[in-house]
Specification:
The protein has about 260 residues and is of the alpha/beta class. The protein is built from 9 helices and 15 strands. The strands form 4 sheets. It has a 6-stranded parallel beta sheet with strand order 5-4-1-13-14-15. A 5-stranded parallel beta sheet has the order 7-6-8-9-12, with helices on one face. A two-stranded antiparallel sheet has the order 2-3. A hairpin with a 2-residue loop joins strand 2 and strand 3. Helix 4 (about 125-135) crosses helix 5 and helix 6 (about 180-190) packs across helix 7. It is globular and about 55 Å long. The relative contact order is 0.17. Bound molecules: magnesium ion.
Length: about 260
């Protein structure tokens, strides 16, 4: 059996600090020409879907909105499933448009939705989220990444701040982005494929590779973006394939061992 479809991470896999990784765009074109459906599955929380798609297209990737799976897609589905109407969005201002169907309520929210605020994290906004959770709101994490690679180098991600709220309030956040199984399942279902015929390609050994493998997909690791050999060694995770870059993937597709 061959791989029937691919899920692809964006930051560190297709692009790095806003620039396409050399050869990545051409590789995506070749994978499409080979007939593979592609889904772009990103944990980015600092911009809305519309903006993520625009940036992808500006890089030269002919992607459509239906092919894009962001953490806000997953959060909206999670909130609707549970009948939640009132939320306190602790996300970048730009990202709030993805939650336009909900009522924003800082006083009595049913859920606090937390994304990455980057340098806008303050004691005040952490404290507000902590108090809302203590008052009974669900803590919904768009993602819980440890770090990502920015212009400054490796940079604290939302997970570090969410862990602070969890610790103080003695709760566990519901993480809706990668590595949540349902997030991968939604992307795979949109391709009409069985998850064991799909591979996730990414630079994050835990959120991309391990998460996808636990969901029943294959995990392909790229040695770009945040990849560090010591992080791979420490993780105990065994990717189904490791490539130097997405650029190398079209030529390596036949080498993935699938039973
Ligand atoms: Mg990444």
């Amino acid at each position: 059996m061959r791989i029937q479809g691919l899920m692809l991470d964006l930051d560190g896999t297709i692009s790095e600090v806003g620039e396409a990784i050399p050869g990545a765009i051409d590789a995506l074109r070749r994978l499409r020409e080979a007939g593979l459906p592609l889904r772009f599955v990103t944990n980015t929380t600092c911009r809305p879907r519309r903006d993520v798609l625009q940036r992808l297209r500006a890089l030269g990737v002919e992607a459509t909105m239906d092919e894009l799976f962001t953490t806000t897609t997953a959060a909206v589905a999670w909130l609707i499933d549970r009948g939640i109407r009132r939320i306190a969005p602790c996300v970048a201002d730009a990202t709030k448009e993805d939650f336009a169907e909900f009522e924003f309520d800082e006083k009595q929210p049913q859920a606090v939705v937390v994304g990455d605020l980057g340098s806008a994290w303050t004691h005040d906004n952490l404290n507000a989220a902590f108090r809302q959770v203590l008052d009974g709101a669900e803590l919904v994490a768009l993602q819980k990444g440890r770090y990502w690679i920015s212009e400054q180098g490796l940079t604290l991600d939302a997970g570090a701040w969410i862990a602070a709220i969890e610790y103080a309030a003695s709760v566990t956040a519901h993480v809706v982005g990668k590595p949540n199984r349902e997030f991968f399942e939604a992307a795979v279902a949109s391709m009409g494929l069985s998850i064991d015929t799909v591979a996730m390609v990414g630079d994050d050994i835990i959120n991309d590779v391990d998460g996808a493998q636990r969901a029943g997909a294959m995990g392909i690791l790229v040695r770009t973006g945040k990849f560090r050999q010591d992080a791979l060694d420490r993780s105990g995770v065994k990717p189904d394939l490791i490539v130097d870059s997405l650029a190398d993937l079209p030529d390596r597709m036949g080498t993935v061992p699938i039973l």
